[in-house]
Amino acid sequence: MALDPHNLLLIALVTAVTLATRVGGALIMARVQLGPSAKGAFEAMPVAVMTAVLAPAALTQGWPEALAAVIAIVVGLRAPMYVVLITGMVCVVLFRMWLS
Amino acid sequence: MHWTGEGDASGALAGATSIWSMLLTYFTPNASIRAMTSSRQEFLDGFRLIVSILIAQTPFGFIVGATSVQKGLSVLEATIMSATVFAGAGQMLALEVWHQPKAWLMVMLAAASVNIRFLLQTASIGPKITHFPPLRRWLSIATMTDPAWGMSEMRHLTRPIRPEFIAGITVPIYVVWVAATTGGAFAGQFIDDPARYGLDFAFVCIFISLVLPFWKRGQGAVLVAVTSGAVAVAAKLAGLGGLYVFIGAIAGVAVAGLAAHRRAGVANGA
Lengths: 100, 270
Prior knowledge:
Shape of chain A: extended
Number of strands of chain B: 0
Number of domains of chain B: 2
Helix content of chain B: over 70%
Oligomer: heterodimer
Strand content of chain A: under 5%
């Protein structure tokens, strides 16, 4: 049960930023009138970030990861997260054995 | 922590529980008992709406905990992180850049970029809960999650939101989240080769699950996703290191801003 100063610092920073996004909305954003393009940009941010994380991780590592990701997406259109997790992880393990 | 918007089912549930609470109120003679019963009822209303989300949350928390340990956090640190940050996608993304150069800056950017949605959520819900006592109001805001936000917005359409309702959503999610992460962190200690179990691929699966409800929202979201995905892949292949996420995201956000600007222009007849 070690506590490492580097880890604790990063945890504190992530906590502070997250808290700021939650409190900041009620405190500041509720009083600011955003223009349509700013609002559209804000709303798109989570999708844009998550896709920008996802696409390179899925597509640039090799065939096993790319195929498993495509299957996970198809499954995810219907199934909840835990099914996507299990399917994706099983597929990637199998494809890595077969394709490399 | 995502919300898939099971509008019909939860609407019917909310209807059924409100009839139940009306009956309870009618048959409870004493006013203070009546108030207590309705507080409890509000909590239970919230709780019932998110039972399915709790089940989905468990494996997610488990993976985040296991990933934390793989990234060099102790079990205690993983628990502290979940208990203080309390935002799954932000935690997962921050862990991805935990050991990059300038990690302190990278984790802040990572957390800010996915958690920025809270800014819009609490901006919308904040003015709707000004009748809460201050402590409960700010506690509700400081612990806002996608399900708590979504369900509260829905509640607000039919009746005033009560603090107990939000607590009925947030408290169980918090308990399950911290417990699942701790369990995952504990189990993660015994996994020496994460790739063997596909554990290194779990975060791709999680982000697929988190982002799919957004993709399904329509053409606009798909355009944003395709842009940010393609630009991020190109930036990574071009050897831009850890910056590719931000380059891809900025491209997607720019497209969204332009599209919204054009829509507004059309609406104004310009």
